[in-house]
């Protein structure tokens, strides 16, 4: 069974459904008008932090959970401030540089906007 409905622009879920004039994502509860999806392709992805605040390139964020750095014994501690983030497509959608650790990628769900 193949669906012709668009993927969710917020989380890329394939399980969207129609609800009146809108499309709805059951996984993240994002709603968007069908007219916007029909006019021309994909909507721009909206990046949100753990509290639902919209993130943009150049923002500063704080880490809300201890994060182990894969392939090393380093840990990014709770409260670590990260300045001048860059948003990218992918599973880890923040590209940044952390003092004492270096360049790395984070998930938006583990940060909050300052």
Draw up the topology in text:
Elements: E1 17-19, E2 22-24, E3 31-33, H1 34-39, E4 61-63, E5 67-68, E6 75-76, E7 81-82, E8 86-87, E9 94-98, E10 102-106, E11 111-113
Antiparallel strand pairs: 1-2, 2-3, 4-7, 4-11, 5-6, 8-9, 9-10
Family: Belongs to the YjdM family.
InterPro entries: YjdM, YjdM_C, YjdM_N
Organism: Thauera terpenica 58Eu
List keywords for this structure.
114 residues; mainly beta; N-terminal domain of TfIIb; SH3 type barrels; 2 domains; three-stranded antiparallel beta sheet; 11 strands; 29% strand; elongated; YjdM_C; YjdM_N; Alkylphosphonate utilization protein; YjdM
Description of the structure:
- The protein is mostly beta strands and 114 residues long.
- It folds into two domains: 1-39, Single Sheet (N-terminal domain of TfIIb); 60-113, SH3 type barrels, CATH 2.30.30.40.
- Helices cover 5% and strands 29% of the residues.
- It is built from one helix and eleven strands, in the order βββαββββββββ.
- The protein has one helix at residues 34-39; strands spanning 17-19, 22-24, 31-33, 61-63, 67-68, 75-76, 81-82, 86-87, 94-98, 102-106, 111-113.
- Strands 1-2-3 form a three-stranded antiparallel sheet. It has a three-stranded antiparallel sheet with strand order 7-4-11, with no helix packed on it. It has a three-stranded antiparallel sheet with strand order 8-9-10, with no helix packed on it.
- Strand 8 (86-87) and strand 9 (94-98) form a beta hairpin.
- It is elongated and about 50 Å long.
- Belongs to the YjdM family.
How far apart lie the N and C ends?
44 Å
CATH topology category name of the largest domain: SH3 type barrels
The gross shape turns out to be elongated
Structural class: mainly beta
Fraction in helix: under 10%
Tally of structural domains: 2
Largest sheet: 3 strands, antiparallel
Average predicted confidence as pLDDT: 86
| Topology, number of strands | 11
CATH superfamily of the largest domain: SH3 Domains
Task: Report the portion of residues in β strands.
Answer: 25-35%
In order across it, which strands form the biggest sheet? 1-2-3
CATH class annotation of the largest domain: Mainly Beta
Please give the radius of gyration in angstroms.
17 Å
- Model regions low in confidence, pLDDT < 50 over at least 5 residues: none
């Amino acid at each position: 069974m193949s669906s012709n409905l668009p993927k969710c622009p917020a989380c890329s879920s394939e399980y969207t459904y129609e609800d009146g004039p809108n499309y709805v994502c059951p996984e993240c509860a994002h709603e968007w008008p069908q007219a916007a999806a029909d006019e021309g392709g994909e909507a721009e992805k909206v990046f949100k932090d753990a509290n639902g605040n919209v993130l943009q390139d150049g923002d500063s964020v704080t880490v809300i959970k201890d994060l182990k750095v894969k392939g090393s014994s380093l840990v990014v501690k709770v409260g670590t401030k990260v300045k001048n983030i860059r948003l990218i497509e992918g599973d880890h959608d923040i590209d940044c540089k952390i003092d004492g650790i270096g360049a790395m990628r984070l998930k938006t769900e583990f940060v909050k906007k300052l």
